[in-house]
Amino acid sequence: MTNKFFGNEHRTVIVPLMKHAFHSVMGVTGQVGGVVARTLLSAHQSVRAVVRDAAKGEAWKQRGCQVALADIGDAVALAKAFEGAEGVFILVPPVFDPSPGFPEARATAAILRAALEAARPSRVVYLSTIGAQADESNLLTQHTIIEQALGDLPMPVTFLRPAWFMENSIWDVASARDQGVISSFLQPLDKPVPMVATADIGRVAAGLLQDTWSGRRVVELEAAERPTPNQIAAIFAKVLGRPVHAEAVPRATWEELFRSQGMKNPLPRMRMVDGFNEGWIEFEQGSDGSQKGTVTMETALQAFVDRGA
């Protein structure tokens, strides 16, 4: 899976501005952004769907949304997409193999800041991550960089920091079903891991867009319970009706494995997983200070299996 941070070939003119309150939502064609937009529409809120591909915006237009075309690398198009919005939900395409020093994130941070300063929406919700406050450099440092760039904007900004996505377990469905094994980079296998479903992230983000606050704030989000890799394997076994166990992927093999998958700079990804395993990627307020989602790991895994992931 690759995503593009740069390129302003998508600079566009959007449809006429809405004359009533609305929210601009990025990432509507993905899991989280789609939930944000649908939740807002269900609450009778107007939505401007921000997409990079006009064809993918058609479904949202049919739902009654205004559609704006804008690429993450184009500050002018983003400013137009955000202009007049009551709230803006920002979701940046992930870069799983960043260059050393995270130049992609630094460029995106500058573009987003310029767009928001130009558009001046009433409030902003940025989808960040658990551990954005960590001092250790790792893959999630990209969000740290963007948080720092947006943190002193003149409008209220919320950094929504969700836990490890339950949807990462989609990659384990085939091996659990066919071999009865899930390979885990998260270890030890009996260590609880903060996780959350994208459905909960989108629902909470939509609620935040409709909220009012002042200045900068952080909202941390996870499921009600933290599962261990062993427990995830046990849930797979229950859902699939066959024995399933977890196996730890030896740390010494990670770099070669990631490079074999095409990564040029695997260290940030490795350090991110180290952070979860060693405990320095954690919520700033700990488990007691996080909001809790409603989707359980069992509900999520059942859905992944049912749709033949």
Description:
This protein has 309 residues and is of the alpha/beta class. 38% of the residues lie in helices and 17% in strands. It is built from 11 helices and 12 strands. Strand 1, helix 1 and strand 2 form a beta-alpha-beta unit. Helix 3 crosses helix 4 and helix 4 packs parallel to helix 5. The longest helix is centred in the middle third of the chain and has 17 residues. The chain starts with 21 loop residues before the first strand and ends with a helix. The N terminus is likely disordered.
Question: Which key features would you list for this structure?
Answer:
309 residues; alpha/beta; Rossmann fold; eight-stranded parallel β-sheet; two-stranded parallel ribbon; 11 helices; 12 strands; 17% strand; disordered N terminus
Given helix and strand content, the structural type is: alpha/beta
The percentage of residues in β strands lies in 15-25%
CATH topological fold name: Rossmann fold
The level of helicity is 25-40%
- Helices, by number, come to 11
CATH homologous superfamily classification: NAD(P)-binding Rossmann-like Domain
Overall shape: it is globular
CATH class: Alpha Beta
- Quickly count the domains: 1
- State the order of secondary-structure elements, H for helix, E for strand: EHEHEHEHEHEEHEEHEHEHHEH
- Biggest sheet strand order reads 3-2-1-4-5-6-10-12
CATH architecture: 3-Layer(aba) Sandwich
Q: Major sheet: size, sense and barrel closure?
A: 8 strands, parallel
Poorly predicted residue ranges = 1-18
Mean pLDDT: 94
Number of strands: 12
- Tell me the distance between the termini: 16 Å
Computed over alpha carbons, the radius of gyration is 20 Å
